[in-house]
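lol forgot to send this yesterday, sorry. struct tokens for the thing we talked abt
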């Protein structure tokens, strides 16, 4: 479905159909993404040198140009999600993928 959604008519149909069953869901996603991006940028401007993204999934925020050199990004997620991300996106010197099952492991390890 994701590959098909690259084609505008399919993407438009998907948005319309989900908006019919869950009005506002796409606007909510856009607002959430914008809020996260704003907080990310604020933290960088404030001079933080490390950012931890819990439940990172396939998010690529840590790889974006908004992250200056010297800022480390730790992406924490379930081991299977981290393994999948490693297959799709090569790790860089600034992004560290951290597999953690928070049901059985302590985040402070």
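and heres what i got for the seq, position by position
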């Amino acid at each position: 479905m994701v590959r098909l959604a690259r084609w505008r008519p399919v993407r438009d149909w998907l948005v319309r159909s989900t908006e019919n069953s869950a009005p506002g869901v796409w606007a909510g996603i856009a607002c959430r993404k914008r809020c996260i991006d704003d907080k990310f940028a604020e933290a960088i401007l404030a001079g933080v040198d490390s950012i931890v993204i819990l439940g990172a999934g396939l998010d690529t925020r840590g790889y974006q140009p908004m992250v200056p050199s010297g800022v480390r990004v730790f992406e924490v997620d379930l081991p299977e999600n981290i393994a999948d991300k490693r297959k799709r996106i090569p790790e860089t010197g600034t992004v560290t993928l951290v597999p953690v099952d928070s049901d059985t492991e302590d985040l402070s390890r």
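The chain is about 40% helix and 15% strand. anyway ping me if u want another try
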